Each structure stands twice: as structure tokens, then as C-alpha cells.
Amino acid sequence: MAVPRQAPVDKRRIILDAAVRVFAREGFHSCRVSDIANEAGVAYGLVYHYFKSKDQVLDTLFLERWDVLLDAIRETDRQRIPAEDKLTAIAGFIIESYRHDPDLMKVIIVEVTRAANTFGATHIGKIGEAYELIRGVVEKAQNAGEFRSEIPSEFAVMAFYGAIEQVLTGWIFGLLPESDEEYELAKAHIVRTICGGLGA
Amino acid sequence: MAVPRQAPVDKRRIILDAAVRVFAREGFHSCRVSDIANEAGVAYGLVYHYFKSKDQVLDTLFLERWDVLLDAIRETDRQRIPAEDKLTAIAGFIIESYRHDPDLMKVIIVEVTRAANTFGATHIGKIGEAYELIRGVVEKAQNAGEFRSEIPSEFAVMAFYGAIEQVLTGWIFGLLPESDEEYELAKAHIVRTICGGLGA
DNA sequence: AAGCTCATTGACTGACGGGTCAATCCGCCG
DNA sequence: CGGCGGATTGACCCGTCAGTCAATGAGCTT
Q: Is the Cα torsion angle B176, B180, B183, B189 positive or negative in sign?
């Protein structure tokens, strides 16, 4: 009667969730592994029972979430809707991720995505996958005449993703006001800027 | 006959220049202060003679260069030219800074600007000053009817600066091809995307 | 009930690197 | 010449963790 060993509580999950809070609060480099253990209400050594290293905890957090993002982009691209709507959906997904779990997104953005030197190095591939998927959306739109072809899709992606990341960073560091309304406005404004431009 | 004490060589400058190379090569956190001293051909302790801490070396590098950028933006804004040209000038200045001294810009972008958690925290104010100056450019253009007012200037800035930073990051981490021609294209494309939009 | 497996504990170790400081060097001035 | 002050040196100190490991305990299997 194969009773799942992990029936009562999944300590691994508890550790990961605690790590999100600790990384968000203190930063990956400044925090100690013992902080994670304490936050999780678990012994120090248990972290090393489930993870090979402190780095691997962050890796796991990032990969778990980033794969969800990649799937969401792929799924969006599969729809038969205007390219602009696809971009709105992608920006919307990222912003909703932030609204739903700000700590996790903060960690991913601040400690991985924006820290390509320290950590991203390992994950540049994964991050590049997202760029590539979005580039696909843009390129198809250009071929279909929805977007003008004047601007290389590589630049379009940088502008689009750069705008999103910058807005999230603005929220994270208190440079932009945050509220449910602001989140909705951001989705619309980002896409409108990238697709429609600032020009009168 | 006040002979300048520092006549022969300015060791302080030598240390700063060496630090740029070391930070660019190994990253601020991974490198040791002794690496900087070795690169500068100077004794370990001399770094602490001129700087209070390892952090202060990076601080100095950042502030020196960022103030030049702020001045450049202010100077650009003073000109009587179309807002789009101002943005081109600003993007151009940043990209030229990168072309002129890639190591220094790499350090500033990767270790300060994009590392707002670790370091930027101290410099969020300075970074915000740049946003604010650019926002001024956009807002004036909106009031003059050059740019449409539909998009709040705060978002416009995020999109503009985000696009630039993302392109630089792409170069730094080898996600975008680099060449003199690419630099020129980037200036044009970034501004054209932000001002004209992707839409057909 | 005995013994096995595996989660769990937390004290301990060892490396690493930032920062200190006492000593030395050197140009200048009286 | 003698001595002052600032530049320069680099060995050393010392705190800080990441990661280890031997011991404990809880439940399952036979």
C-alpha cells in the first residue's frame, strides 16, 4: 500500500517557500543558509538534505517559475489573435505573476534575471529562450504585415522585455507607485508604447 | 614653487582603472581586493590608503561616470531640437560611452544599475535622477504636442531606458552581435521603436 | 520486536577574504 | 644633516558563513 513518504508535510516545499521570503527580504548574497532554515522552522542541515548548495535553492526557484513563463508564452503564441494581443497577454502574464507572488518575482528579477553576472550566467540560456519565443511572435507579425519590418525583431524584443523588466524593477524598488490599478495600466501602457510609439 | 605632490603618477587613478578591468573580468563580488592591487601593480594596503573600502572603489567609479551622464542629459535637454532628436542624443551618448570604454560601462550596468539590490540601493537616488531628467524631456514634448499624452511620462521613461539597458546587456552577455555598425543601428532602432512603435 | 531506511538535527570545521597596522621608504624643508 | 609627513608595503587578524557529519528518531517491513 505505497503510502507516500511525504504524506504530512513536504519539507522541501516549505524550505523553498521560506527561501523566497528570505531572499526577497535580505537578498541572496546577504542572507545566510541558517536564515532560510529558521524561516522554514527546520534544522540547518535539512536544507542540505534537499539541496546540494545554497545556489541550488535559488536555481530551483528560478527554473520552476521560468518554465511556467516559457509555457505561457508558447501557449499564447499558439492562439490565433493579433500580435499586439499576444504581447499584451505576455506582459499581462508577467505582471500577474508579480501581483500574485511579488516576493518570488522580486527574487527572480533581482537575483537572477538582473544579476546575469553572478547567477544569470548559468541561466542565460533559459532567459534567451524567452527572448527567442517573443522574437518569434514579432517576426511572424512582421511577415504577416501586422508589424513593420523596419525594426529587427531582436531589437523589438529588447525594447519590449526591457520595458517590462524596468517597470517591475520600478515597483520593486519603489520608484513607481503600486496598486491594482497601476498593474492594469502598466499592461496597457507598455504594449501601447511598444506597438504604437510615443510620437503624436 | 608649489610642485604638485602627485607629479609622477596618480596611483589613485591607476587603482581605479585597474579596478574597472578586474570588476569587468571577474565581477565585483567574485574578485578580491588583492586582485585589484595586483592588476594595478601596487601593494594591497594602498587600496585602503585611497579608499575606505572595496565598496567605495565601485562607488567612485559609478558616481564619476554617472555624473557625466547626467550632465550630458541636461545639456541635451537644453538644446532647441525635436524631442525625438533629444532621445536619440541620449541613447547615442550611452551607447558611445559603451563603445568608448566597454569595461567601465559593463561594470556600471552589471554591478550597479542592474544590481539595485546589492549596490544600487545606495545609488537609487542617482539613478532616479536620470529617469527624472528623461521624464522631463518626454513631458515637455507631450505638452508641446510632439508626443501624445496618452502614455504617462513615467512609463515612457521606463520603456526608453529599459530598451537601452537591455540592448547593452545583450551586448555584454553576448546575446546580441557587436560591431560599430550594430552600435549605430541600435541608436536608430531604439528611438524609432519607442517613438514610432512596432505597429504597421 | 528487531532491524532497516531515511528524514531530521545542529554543533563543528575550514576556507576565504575584507580590513588593519606597524614598519619602511622617500622627498622636502629648515 | 636631521627630522617631519605622507606614500607605500604586505603579513596578519578575525569574523563570517557554506558545507559536513555523526547522532537521533520515526515509521515501515518482515
A: negative
